[in-house]
Amino acid sequence: MNVLQGEITSIKTNGSLSLVTVDVGAVFFNTIIIETPDTASYLKQGNHIKMIFKETEVIVGKGIEHSISIQNKAIGEIINIKKGQLLSTLTIDSTVGHLTAIITSDAADQLQLEIGEKITAMIKTTEIMLSE
Fold first, then answer.
1. Can you list the positions of beta strands (E) in 15-96?
2. How much is the pTM?
3. Burial of residue 124, with CB atoms counted within 10 A of its CB: 0-12 exposed, 13-18 middle, 19 or more buried
4. Using CA of residue 101, residue 106, residue 109, residue 110, what is the dihedral sign?
C-alpha cells in the first residue's frame, strides 16, 4: 500500500458523500469518500491524515504533460523496476515521496520505461482512502 501524510484543505459534501482535498507537500489530491464531517470526526479542515491507495491504482504516464481527467498527479523519477512475466513493479521518487506502482509488463515495454525516466504517477479520485 502507498501511504502519504497530508493535511485536509477543503471538504465539499453532498448527501453521504464528501469530496476531500488533501495537501501533500504542496501537491493537492482529491478523494471521494462515503463519509461526511457529521459521520467521521477526522474530517475537519486542517486535520492531518493519511492517504492510502493500492499500488495497482497508480497509473503511469511517460513524461509530465497529459490531457486526461485524472486530477491526482505526482511528477517523479523511476528509481527501480522489478519486471515479472505479467506484472512490473515500479518504485517512483516523486514530489510527495516514494510511490509504488504495479502495471503490466506489456505496458512497461510499450512505454519503454527505464530507471531514471521522468514520469507522472496518477491516482483516480475514487481509489484513495483516508485514515487518521
1. 17-24, 27-33, 48-53, 58-62, 72-83, 87-94
2. 0.77
3. middle
4. negative
CA distance 80 to 93: 9
SS (H, E, C) 9-34: EEEEEECCEEEEEEEECCEEEEEEEC
Torsion of CA 95, 97, 102, 105, to 10 degrees: 60
Q: Can you give the pLDDT of all 132 residues of the chain as single tens digits? A: 999 999 999 999 999 989 999 999 999 999 989 999 999 999 999 999 999 999 999 988 886 676 788 889 999 999 999 999 898 999 999 999 999 999 989 899 999 999 999 999 999 989 999 988
> How many CA atoms does the CB half-sphere of 40 hold within 13 Å?
19
The residue among 33, 29, 28, 24 whose CA lies nearest residue 4 is 24
How many contiguous H segments (helices) and E segments (strands) does the chain have? 1, 10
